[in-house]
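Notes from hallway chat w/ T.B., transcribed later so I don't forget. T.B. wanted the structure written out for a chain they're using in a teaching module, and asked if we could keep both sequence and structure tokens in one place. Agreed to drop them here.
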Amino acid sequence: MLPIDLSIPLGIGTPAWPTYEPLQMKYFKRLAPNGANGQLLTHSNHVGTHLDGEIHFYSPGRDIAQLPLDYLMHEGVIVDLSDAVGDYDIYTSKMVEDRVEVKEGDILIIHTGYHHNGWDQPTADEVTYMVKHPGPDREFAEWAKAKKLRWIGVDCGSADHPMNTTIRTWMPRQAKEADAHFRKKYKKPLEEVFTDDKYQLMHLEMFNHQIVHAECMGGDIDLLLNQRCVIGAFPWRLVDGESCISRILAFVDDDRHAKLMAKKSKAKLTKHGDVSGSENDWLHEEGRKLAAKHKKAKKSKKAGRTKKRK
């Protein structure tokens, strides 16, 4: 099996989640006169592609070092919801299951398409990436627990809806936009959808059930939309770590990898060598065809069960 990178590039320009320490990097020794180059890095755990650990929000939980390898690496599926959600929207479990099969115990990666706004992309827009991305309501969290998902990954700033975090207070202009959007689309004001008892529910209501999540995923994720594969997150073996910067990879067999690399060779790339999400609509169209095929098969299977009962 061979890997496909699902991580974004990490550098001093990579935005951390708001108020968290960004990456700072400096040389403390040089080839002349020290005989070697050496660098010193300081950063929080919430910059670039990273895995939120249980003790980030749940004190009795496992630290990063305690997460078993067969928890971090397992079969899973990458679902593309970019055709279903836009700024400030809510995504649901139905949107997911209409597009892919999610098995009990899977790792689930959600492609909202908002990594196209990431710092490494030609269409970078940090406010959209961190503040306007879609997110779930409690329905999705309850479904994830019922499915006994191992962990979840997202290609945007948070697994929670940004307006269900403290960003809602920090960015009043965008909160006003979101409220107007909710009133128009969901017929309720923002404060009635994301009530205080739901605050950061993807963190507070999931980590105590050993379902954590990765945030700020990307890389070549557009090659694998609405497809199953083996997925692995590789954080440091960080004792007492509440979270950790991570390399996250998808693994596919050699023949499939060769076909995916052939597709990548035809795609427009970012300056860092990843597929440029916003400039390769044909990859999204391929993913949507797979989703339509899944939905048709699911409908046919349901019709067959109904016919048998009759």
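Follow-up for T.B.: The two ends are 45 Å apart (CA to CA). Might be a good example for the class.
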